[in-house]
Design brief:
The chain has 223 residues and is α/β, with parallel strands linked by helices. It contains eight helices and seven strands; from the N terminus they run E-H-E-H-H-H-E-H-E-H-E-E-H-E-H. It is found in: Mitochondrion matrix.
Length: 223
């Protein structure tokens, strides 16, 4: 059933292609992108109370506590209550999912299910422009000039935590945290899972599904 205003969530492990799939959804369906990471970075740059508190944890390499992330996301979704949006990077815990559900009903949840071994191989080729968070990949999304950001021409870096053993640990932690979230949305009949090894394999299925919920504004062709 086509709706005028839709609230959706996209979930996927680090390296699952969630960023690329999200960009394609936004382009073809004209949704607002509510990304928890971007929202946190914005708060930190502005020096807000939430930003100052969050930075203390991020600087120590720790996860930002539930209460801070919840406060930020709930304030954001309430500001955009009349908009169609895609929530990205949230919820990460069952508590976050349950609390969000009480404040803002969700229409559907997309989960990208990519085998961990595929993700580990994919992440090994990832390079990042740290100030902006732009992500490149030597095979799937290379910069125009090797090792250089397309926009600022500043150097790209490869993070220490993109090493295979570190990635596997992060994926296992993600699975442990996210499984209760998936179970919650599955129980509420909101979860749509898309399995595959690559974005070209998964994207057509995702687009076809969303087209049953929202009228597309365009159809972008990808190689």
């Amino acid at each position: 059933m086509i709706k005028k205003v839709v609230k959706a969530i996209i979930l996927g492990a680090p390296g699952s292609g969630k960023g690329t799939i999200s960009e394609r959804i936004l382009k073809d369906f004209s949704m607002k992108h509510l990304a928890s990471g971007d929202l946190l970075r914005s708060q930190i740059l502005k020096g807000t109370d939430i930003g100052v508190s969050a930075k203390k944890y991020i600087d120590k390499g720790q996860l930002v506590p539930d209460n801070l992330v919840l406060q930020l996301i709930l304030e954001t979704v309430q500001r955009h209550k009349d908009d169609t949006w895609l929530l990205d990077g949230f919820p990460r815990t069952l508590n976050q999912a349950v609390t969000l559900d009480k404040i803002q009903p969700i229409n559907f949840v997309i989960n990208l299910n990519v085998p961990f071994d595929i993700i580990i191989e994919r992440i090994k080729g990832r390079w990042i422009h740290m100030p902006s968070g732009r992500v490149y990949h030597t095979e799937f999304n290379p910069p125009k000039v090797k090792g250089i950001d397309d926009v600022t021409q500043e150097p790209l870096v490869q993070r220490e935590d993109d090493k295979p053993e570190t990635v596997r640990h992060r994926l296992n932690v993600y699975k442990e945290l996210t499984q209760p979230v998936l179970d919650f949305y599955r129980k509420n009949q909101l979860l749509e899972e898309f399995t595959g090894n690559s974005t070209p394999e998964i994207w057509p299925k995702v687009r076809q599904f969303i087209s049953t919920k929202i009228e597309p504004v365009q159809k972008t062709e990808y190689k």
